[in-house]
Write a structure and sequence with these properties.
single chain; alpha+beta; 5 helices; 24 strands
C-alpha cells in the first residue's frame, strides 16, 4: 500500500476544474469574424469609388504631358560624349545677346544673319586702326592675337591708312606726309599746302591719294604729281569704292553725291529718311562697288557742312541708290563702321558699357562678333585693312 501523494492529487483537482474547450469551434468562429470584416471593407471601398466617379476627380492628370519638339529643329548627330554636346549647344554668352529691334523705316539686307561664325577676336582677319577723336597724334593698330600698339605719335589734322595697312598718310602743319609703318622717317608726299578738309583717301591699289591741295585732286604718291578733279565734281571728303570705279563725296550744302571715277559730274543721292531727322553729310568709307557707304549722321546740316575733323566715325550705313539708312543687326549703339578693301564691313557698337566688333561679309552674313579690348576705349574707329 502506497502512501499519500499530494502533488498528484492537486493536479487531478485542477484538471477537474478546467472546462473542456473545442479548438475546432474556436478556429471556425475566428474565420467567420475575419470574413465579415473584409466584406465590410469591400463595401466601403466600392462606395468611395462610386463617389469619385460621380464628382469627376478621377480625371486628375497622372503625369505631365511629354514636351513637343519644335517643328523646325533639325536632327543633330554627334559622336562626342553627352557632356561635350551639351556644352557646345549652350553657346557662348556673346551669341545670347539680343539684337537691335528691326526698324520698319530701315530696310535690312535679305541675307543678314545674326549668329556669328566666330566669337573669338583672334579670328578677325587683317588690321583695325583707331585714332584720337581730336587728332592729337595717337594712331593705334589692333592686330588680332596681339596687344594694341601705337604706330604714329605725331600730331595731325587729318589721316588715312593704306588698304594693305602698311602706310599712313596725314596732314600736319599744312604738309602731306606719308609714313611707312614698318619703320623709317615720315616723308613729305606733296610740296604744296594740303588741307584737312579732305582726309587723305588711298586708292585701292595704294598708288594714289585723294587730297585737298589748292583744290581736290588725285596725287600720284611715287611722283608727287597732282591731277585736279573735274570742275563738275565740286565737293569734299571724297572716298573711293573698293574696286576704284566710283567716288562718293559730300557737297558744301550737306548733300551726298556719287560719280564714276572718270565722270565729269556726280549724281545726288536721294535724301535719307532718318527717323530722328538727322542728315548724312559725311561719307566715311565705301563698299566694293559704290552701292553702300558708311556715313556720319548730323543733327545740324548747316554746322556739319563747315565742320572738319581728323576722325569722323560713321554711325550708319546708307544705300546710295535709294538714300535709305540700312538696318544693321547689332545690339546697342553703332559708334563706328568701315568697309575693308575686300568688301567686308566692320561695325563697332556699344551696349551696356561693352564694346564689340562685328564683321559682315559682302552678303551680310555675320562672320565674327567679339569683345573689343578695353585699351581701345576713348579712341575712334578709323580704318579696317588687310
Amino acid at each position: 500500500m502506497t502512501g499519500p501523494e499530494p502533488l498528484r492529487d492537486e493536479l487531478r483537482e485542477l484538471a477537474d476544474s478546467v472546462t473542456p474547450t473545442d479548438l475546432y469551434e474556436r478556429a471556425l468562429a475566428r474565420s467567420h469574424r475575419i470574413g465579415r470584416r473584409e466584406a465590410a471593407l469591400g463595401t466601403t471601398a466600392a462606395a468611395v469609388a462610386l463617389a469619385l466617379l460621380g464628382s469627376g476627380l478621377w480625371q486628375l492628370p497622372r503625369s505631365s504631358p511629354a514636351p513637343t519638339a519644335p517643328v523646325a529643329a533639325p536632327a543633330v548627330t554627334s559622336s562626342a560624349p553627352a557632356s561635350v554636346a551639351t556644352t557646345a549647344t549652350s553657346g557662348p554668352t556673346e551669341q545670347a545677346e539680343p539684337t537691335q529691334t528691326h526698324l520698319p523705316a530701315r530696310p535690312r539686307p535679305a541675307r543678314t544673319t545674326t549668329k556669328p561664325r566666330s566669337t573669338t577676336l583672334a579670328d578677325l582677319p587683317g588690321h583695325v586702326f583707331y585714332a584720337q577723336p581730336e587728332g592729337d597724334g595717337r594712331l593705334v593698330r589692333l592686330t588680332p592675337g596681339t596687344e594694341p600698339e601705337t604706330v604714329l605719335a605725331e600730331s595731325y589734322a587729318a589721316v588715312g591708312v593704306s588698304p594693305d595697312g602698311s602706310r599712313v598718310a596725314y596732314v600736319a602743319n599744312g604738309s602731306l606726309m606719308v609714313a611707312d609703318l614698318g619703320g623709317g622717317e615720315p616723308q613729305q608726299a606733296y610740296a604744296g599746302i594740303a588741307s584737312a578738309a579732305q582726309a587723305p583717301a588711298w586708292s585701292p591699289d595704294g598708288a594714289r591719294l585723294l587730297i585737298n591741295a589748292a583744290e581736290p585732286g588725285v596725287l600720284e604718291v611715287a611722283t608727287g604729281v597732282v591731277t585736279p578733279l573735274p570742275s563738275g565734281l565740286d565737293g569734299r571728303q571724297f572716298r573711293w569704292s573698293g574696286d576704284g570705279s566710283t567716288l562718293v563725296y559730300a557737297t558744301a550744302g550737306c548733300e551726298l553725291r556719287v560719280a564714276e571715277a572718270t565722270a565729269e559730274s556726280g549724281t545726288a543721292v536721294p535724301e535719307s529718311a532718318d527717323p530722328e531727322g538727322r542728315t548724312a553729310c559725311r561719307p566715311v568709307s565705301v563698299d566694293a562697288t559704290g552701292a553702300l557707304v558708311t556715313v556720319q549722321l548730323e543733327e545740324s546740316p548747316a554746322g556739319a557742312s563747315a565742320k572738319d575733323s581728323a576722325v569722323a566715325p560713321a554711325d550708319a550705313l546708307l544705300d546710295t541708290a535709294t538714300g535709305d539708312i540700312v538696318d544693321l543687326p547689332v545690339s546697342g549703339t553703332i559708334i563706328g563702321a568701315v568697309f575693308g578693301p575686300d568688301g567686308n564691313l566692320l561695325v563697332r557698337s556699344v551696349s551696356g558699357g561693352k564694346r564689340r566688333l562685328s564683321l559682315f561679309a559682302p552678303d551680310f552674313s555675320l562672320l565674327l562678333r567679339a569683345r573689343e579690348p578695353a585699351a581701345l576705349r576713348g579712341l575712334s574707329l578709323l580704318a579696317y585693312t588687310r
